[in-house]
Specification:
Elements lengths: L2 H4 L11 E5 L3 H12 L3 E5 L13 E3 L6 H10 L2 E4 L6 H8 L8 H8 L1 H10 L7 E4 L2 H5 L8 E5 L9 E4 L2 H10 L5 E5 L5 E9 L5 E3 L3 E6 L2 E7 L5 H17 L4 E10 L3 E8 L9 H4 L4 H9 L13 E7 L14 H5 L4 E5 L10 E8 L3 H15 L6
Magnesium ion (MG) binds next to loops.
Length: about 400
């Protein structure tokens, strides 16, 4: 092999150097832990003094994301920068992009920031989505096809964990919900009969090489992810179709980093894209314990221009999300019985170091490993019983 052939397409950033991070939530925390274990130093900007990532980063600058001085400090110190949530202002990403690699780039993040842009992008690129109508004016609702009802009205921007969404049975309800939402741009989607919800996590390097993790199956409760199972209990054809969609999206977006594609499996094994997240994803947390490399390690590798790792799953896994609700079962705040959770064989506890549990707040997760999905599920049922949460199906 010639020296040319072994030369990386992009100059890699060696361990010991600084990597920048915008956003200090749990996704940032787990990224920082993965980067630190490879010897990188991580510099995070987050306005919250007690952000989960701050506790494990080498440096935390407490500032708003648009703060020029903070962005300057990050650009001076770091060799590349990534994000941990999609609502980082695109202007901040564009400013940083003049000075250092921003992965993923602002243009790709912008598609995920706005449901209207996202839907248009999918349609323009021949990627199948469910029936929907873009809503800018009341006329759009009045003229929406009947088949979209019952539907879900979703605000175009700033929605997560089903915030900014309303189930609407009739056209009148849709108009009322849209008025209540402040007449902001929305998407009206037909409410689909879902066979399964799945997510495919793809990681693409700056050299265009991409790897996908095994397909993950997801159960949401009240619009919030509750359970993830991998490998997903779907046919090989559905798994292959989902991976192909994720790869295609990463390539057309010229994406660098970790991208999660949330999909619906509907009748006749059709796979429709629901939405994309330009970052590691809650459903991929089980990759930490179940795969040869986690989604966070892949994010660090892609950011640093290093070769991507194997995504091979070494052991079946079921993840249970731990929400703040379980601290308040009897009314008063009581710490959950972690001792008993850790006593379940194959259970791995991950807590994010948040000081205040609140209803609906993501406090941590438990990944249960097993010899088979059925075995991991059995252990997850035991953990759910200990924590007093609804068992996975
Ligand atoms: P969020 O940004 O809150 O994750 P999603 O659009 O992914 O918003 O919706 C949250 C959950 O609501 C989905 O994971 C799915 O369970 C359900 N959902 C959303 N859209 C539809 C739809 N068109 N049909 C059926 N269920 C849906
Ligand atoms: Mg979602």
């Amino acid at each position: 092999m010639s020296a040319e052939a072994t030369k990386p397409a992009v100059e890699p950033i060696p361990p010991g150097q600084w990597l920048g991070l915008l956003g200090g939530g749990q996704l940032g925390r787990m990224f920082a832990m993965a980067a630190a274990s490879m010897g990188y130093r991580v510099f995070v900007i987050d306005p919250d003094p007690h952000s989960p990532a701050a506790a494990v980063c080498d440096e935390h600058l407490q500032a708003p994301y648009e703060d020029d001085a903070a962005l300057d400090a990050l650009a001076e110190r770091c060799r590349a920068v990534t994000i941990e949530f999609e609502n980082v202002p695109a202007s901040a990403l564009r400013k940083l992009a003049d000075r250092l690699p921003v992965r993923p780039a602002a243009d790709a993040v912008a598609v995920a920031q706005d449901r209207i842009a996202e839907k248009r992008y999918m349609v323009a690129n021949g990627i199948e989505v469910g029936p929907h109508k873009i809503v800018d004016r009341v006329d759009d609702l009045l003229r929406a096809p009947d088949m979209l009802f019952p539907g879900i009205l979703k605000t175009a921007r700033l929605g997560y964990d089903a915030k900014g969404q309303a189930v609407v049975t009739t056209r009148d309800e849709a108009v009322a919900a849209w008025t209540k939402m402040g007449r902001v741009p929305c998407v009206l989607e037909k409410r689909l009969e879902l066979q399964r919800e799945v997510s495919c996590i793809v990681c693409r390097g700056a050299d265009g090489q991409a790897v996908t993790f095994p397909l993950i199956e997801n159960e949401h409760r009240h619009g919030i992810l509750a359970v993830s199972i991998a490998p997903a209990r779907v046919s090989p054809q559905v798994a292959a179709k989902a991976a192909e969609i994720a790869r295609k999206l990463a390539a057309t977006l010229d994406y660098v980093g970790v991208l999660c594609v949330e999909m619906f499996v509907v009748a006749e094994d059709r796979v429709l894209v629901n939405e994309i997240a330009p970052r590691p994803h809650n459903s991929g947390h089980l990759t930490i314990d179940a795969c040869a490399a986690s989604q966070f390690e892949q994010q660090a590798r892609a950011l640093a221009g290093m070769p991507l790792a194997s995504t091979a799953q070494l052991v079946p896994a079921v993840m249970l999300n731990v929400l703040g609700d379980i601290w308040f079962r009897g009314g008063d705040r009581v710490e959950p019985p972690w001792h008993e959770v850790l006593g379940v064989s194959g259970a791995k506890l991950h807590l994010y170091g948040k000081r205040e549990p609140r209803m609906g707040r993501k406090m941590g997760h438990v990944t249960c490993l097993g010899a088979s999905v059925a075995d991991a599920l059995e252990r997850a049922v035991a953990v759910a019983a200990v924590l007093g949460i609804e068992p996975p199906k």
